[in-house]
Amino acid sequence: MVLRLAVGLLLPTALVIGSGLSESEIEKAIALGKHYKNPARLWKQEFERTNKLKMSGYWSMSGSKYLSVITDRVVIAVASASAAHEMRAFTADDAKRLPGLGKIRVIVAISAVGASNIARIQERFASGKTHMILEVDGQQLQPEQKIELGSDYAAGLQVWNFIQVGNAVLASNAGAFDRGTVTYAFTYSIPDEQHATKLRFVLVGDDDKQHTVEVAVSNLQ
């Protein structure tokens, strides 16, 4: 999902706002994409560990919340991987022509397991009820754009309990647990004069409770 959005719906982003990536960094991102040829595997192996941020886990009463920060490096590498997969050429000039450089774009996925929890996140976060600001050096930035990408629903995740009795293992079915996810994309611009060292995201739903996560810019890929 993240990689499809990075190539299609979302525009590229930059860590150093206003200057973008250097020629060397662009070439390295292109080479990385060509190496993997598979956008999903590229994200999983190279970017998920650093660019996927956790606000809360699955057992939170308000659902799990994960942010995926899509940078210039990610988008260029993914575009290169897609081109390699389709046996198309992709050059540094192609990368520079990608629109939207200099923005920070974030995909927010809010998920829950179980019918009652799914209903809770739908009530609190779906239908445009979610908002998120970006704090940079104490300044609060509103998103330039907010898009609700939709809600996904998966039924029948089976959960089993296993108990060992002597040499035997007894299994009991704890039931099927449904899973639902609400997804948004946010776009931010940081003024050219600000060279951010830390980003703090503050998310709020219909219940007005704030959920936050911070990341050092140097830790993002």
Folded structure, characterized:
- There is one protein chain.
- The chain is α+β, with helices and mostly antiparallel strands and 221 residues long.
- The protein has one domain (2-219).
- The protein is built from six helices and nine strands.
- It has helices spanning 2-7, 23-36, 39-51, 72-85, 92-96, 115-125; strands at 52-56, 64-70, 103-113, 131-136, 139-141, 145-165, 168-189, 198-204, 210-216.
- A five-stranded antiparallel sheet has the order 1-2-3-7-6. The chain has a four-stranded antiparallel sheet with strand order 5-4-8-9, with no helix packed on it.
- Helix 2 crosses helix 4 and helix 3 packs antiparallel against helix 4.
Q: Tally the helices: what do you get? A: 6
Strand content: 35-45%
Radius of gyration: 20 Å
Overall form: globular
The domain tally reads 1
List unreliable stretches of 5+ residues: 6-19
Q: State the end-to-end distance.
A: 18 Å
Strands, count: 9
Helix content class:
25-40%
**What series of H and E elements makes up the topology?**
HHHEEHHEHEEEEEE
Helix-strand category = alpha+beta
**Strands side by side in the biggest sheet:** 1-2-3-7-6
**Mean pLDDT score:** 82
The largest pleated sheet is described as: 5 strands, antiparallel
List the helices and strands and how they pair.
Elements: H1 2-7, H2 23-36, H3 39-51, E1 52-56, E2 64-70, H4 72-85, H5 92-96, E3 103-113, H6 115-125, E4 131-136, E5 139-141, E6 145-165, E7 168-189, E8 198-204, E9 210-216
Antiparallel strand pairs: 1-2, 2-3, 3-7, 4-5, 4-8, 6-7, 8-9
Helix pairs in contact: 2-4, 3-4
